[in-house]
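Customer escalation, tier 2.

The customer says the design service returned an amino acid string that "doesn't look like it belongs to this structure." They asked us to rerun it and document both sides in this ticket. The original structure tokens are below, unchanged.
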């Protein structure tokens, strides 16, 4: 009989929600980032930061992205690249949002389930995972950022890593009038588009093996323009856009 201690353990579903994103200009590789899956009414979306899809200030104009998809529930070392075009007839296929303060750094693109590789293994958040206004998120509450900082990940099992973070602003309020809140965490390039989640102590029955509250979408590090880089450390603060924007972006 095989030694049970050598068997592959079951992968926590949270690690299957996030994917590494590669951006391309035709065949030329550009950058890498993070993203995650969101499901609504049987429709499947890939979520990431809008600046991953298009960013005029840095002249970042990819025409397609590629994600790494697991294709074997029995062996998570097996994966394949899945290419997603960003334009059709010169029109963008992703959706992005605006509010009274301007553009929101979140984008979604719908995925055709029938086009996904055979045996695709993934987990997706849904509307039930979004924050309920009746729930109180305390200052300093512990959250996780699930992604691929500097592209770093488990290269054997093709899984992301999690970074510990804390809520650093009054959750529920738009920080400085923008549609995001702050987290206190050590983050890096490549983490843009990662989900910011909080463990649910007493999850409701409909969440299955994914008892996490989806609070936001990690976007970028914040810094002070007046900071003396020789004397002062970086703030270590980041902005995460409130995840309820996904209800708008995935609405018919």
């Amino acid at each position: 009989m095989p030694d049970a201690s050598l068997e592959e353990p079951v992968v926590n579903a949270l690690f299957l929600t996030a994917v590494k994103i590669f951006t391309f200009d035709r065949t030329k590789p550009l950058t890498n980032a993070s993203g995650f899956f969101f499901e609504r009414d049987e429709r499947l979306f890939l979520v990431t930061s809008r600046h991953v899809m298009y960013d005029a200030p840095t002249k970042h104009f990819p025409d397609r992205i590629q994600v790494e998809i697991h294709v074997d529930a029995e062996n998570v070392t097996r994966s394949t690249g899945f290419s997603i075009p960003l334009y059709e007839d010169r029109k963008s296929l992703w959706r992005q949002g605006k509010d009274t303060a301007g553009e929101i750094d979140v984008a979604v693109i719908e995925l055709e389930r029938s086009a996904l590789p055979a045996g695709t293994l993934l987990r997706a958040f849904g509307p039930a995972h979004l924050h309920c206004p009746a729930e109180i998120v305390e200052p300093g509450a512990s959250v996780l950022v699930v992604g691929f900082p500097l592209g770093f990940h488990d290269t054997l099992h093709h899984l992301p890593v999690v970074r510990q973070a804390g809520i650093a602003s009054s959750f529920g309020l738009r920080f400085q009038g923008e549609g995001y809140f702050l987290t206190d965490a050590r983050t890096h390039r490549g983490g843009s588009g990662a989900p910011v989640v909080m463990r649910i102590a007493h999850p409701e029955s409909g969440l299955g093996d994914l008892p996490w509250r989806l609070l936001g979408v990690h976007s970028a590090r914040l810094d002070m323009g007046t900071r003396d880089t020789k004397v002062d450390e970086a703030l270590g603060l980041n902005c995460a856009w409130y995840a309820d924007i996904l209800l708008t972006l995935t609405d018919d």
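Tier 2 assessment: The sequence is consistent with the input. The chain has one domain: 4-249. The two ends are 53 Å apart (CA to CA). Sent an explanation to the customer and offered a walkthrough call.
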